[in-house]
Structure formats: C-alpha cells, structure tokens
Amino acid sequence: MVMPIATEIYEKVQILPNNFQYQVLSFVRTLESLTEEGTPGKDLLKFAGTIPIEDLEVMRETIEAGCEQESYSRK
Q: Pick from 11, 9, 39: which is nearest to 27 by CA?
C-alpha cells in the first residue's frame, strides 16, 4: 500500500531525535517561503526605462563595491 507523502514524512520525522526534527521544520519553513508568489514580470515592464542612467550607474558601482568585500553578515 502506498502512503500519502505527508503521512510518510510524519512517520519518519517521529523517529528522529529532536534536534533533527527542528532541522526538518527549519527546512520546511524555508521551502514554504520559496513558494510565495511575487509580481509577474509582465506587470513590471511598465517600469522599464524609468530609472535615470546616472542612478543606474551609481547602483552598479555600489553593487560592485559591495561584492568586493571579503566578509558579510548572514542570518
């Protein structure tokens, strides 16, 4: 008999130590956040070309300067 996925996951997680259960929960929460929907690209096309070229250059330079840093903060 084939078990539904959620049932199988539940049964397998039950036998894991608590620290692994927390890791599973954290992973599921991460996956959940990845499924959030954003604004479709076609809805953003109306903004194409609206940022002045000078501002784009400043943004590019700032991003490049930030990418050259060796250390950064992670959550």
A: 9
